[in-house]
Amino acid sequence: xxxxxxxxxxxxxxxxxxxxxxxxxxxxxxxxxxxxxxxxxxxxxxxxxxxxxxxxxxxxxxxxxxxxxxxxxxxxxxxxxxxxxxxxxxxxxxxxxxxxxxxxxxxxxxxxxxxxxxxxxxxxxxxxxxxxxxxxxxxxxxxxxxxxxxxxxxxxxxxxxxxxxxxxxxxxxxxxxxxxxxxxxxxxxxxxxxxxxxxxxxxxxxxxxxxxxxxxxxxxxxxxxxxxxxxxxxxxxxxxxxxxxxxxxxxxxxxxxxxxxxxxxxxxxxxxxxxxxxxxxxxxxxxxxxxxxxxxxxxxxxxxxxxxxxxxxxxxxxxxxxxxxxxxxxxxxxxxxxxxxxxxxxxxxxxxxxxxxxxxxxxxxxxxxxxxxxxxxxxxxxxxxxxxxxxxxxxxxxxxxxxxxxxxxxxxxxxxxxxxxxxxxxxxxx
Length: 430
Description:
single chain, Lipocalin, Rossmann fold, 3 domains, 10 helices
């Protein structure tokens, strides 16, 4: 009789835990001091994962449970899993991805994030879903059309930064491209923004693609716009800003806006990013210098297809040696090999269309000083060109305190209203 009672109790506990575990559960994944919110939408037999900070939604999740409140959430698409134990109003456990494990606790509900600039309808303009192709890639996007739009309306294709991003360039709940498209449309300027290849509703290879392929994706969008508009420009952010200037140099657009675009080489940019990150982490200057020498030697070897250096030849801690080994797998990709060699400095003199190039002075991802200097040295002076360092703005063109990556999600502002006004005024004056 006692055994039967225990069995019934366990069965009842299992039912109660299943019911308790359904709904939205949020965990904060902390890596290198940066918090990333993971939202599991758990049903009785299946679940999905949202990562709002990265614009990822409804990633399929496999769910399994045991009789004592244990739950396993397996996410094959990102090679990750969470194993936890239900404990009242939380699920405490461990998140694992690519062999690395992190403690994580899930709590019920979805965090409230304020993004007051995100456009909310009804809108005084029209939108149209479109698609265009580059080889095997099919790019899906949104064409935003102001009132009284015709062939003479200026239009810009919008190109996102590095990494897989949707058409809004969504990051940490911010949707800067949606904010820009909305402001432009209200001012009588049309835009086309699209999901990156292999992300969102777009298809296409991302494993073997390079910045050149991404530029050609944007060019395919330019050709689509040429069928309906006579004045076609491009606006790009970060890597997209680089692509904007590439298109301008190839005489493919009538005007270009580069937001935090990289002008100096990819190798120089990565060195500056790593140096800043290591200093911010509090590492000794000698170790920072040694690691950057190793990276520089590695980049030179990759560019010349020479044997790679060994981390053992540099005065590094075991932690930095492991970090280097992890980074090597990323360095030897077609994308990175192209990126390291990419240097727009020599291409700027060939640009003849009007260019607006803006960089934030507190940008910690694309160094304002070096890139502004390269822009001023390379772009033809005079005319309608505008090259400006935006005081106090970070890489996302937010007003900020530190400019650090970890600060992006803490800031409610998505995009500087002043810069929005500057860009609109510049396009209107062309």
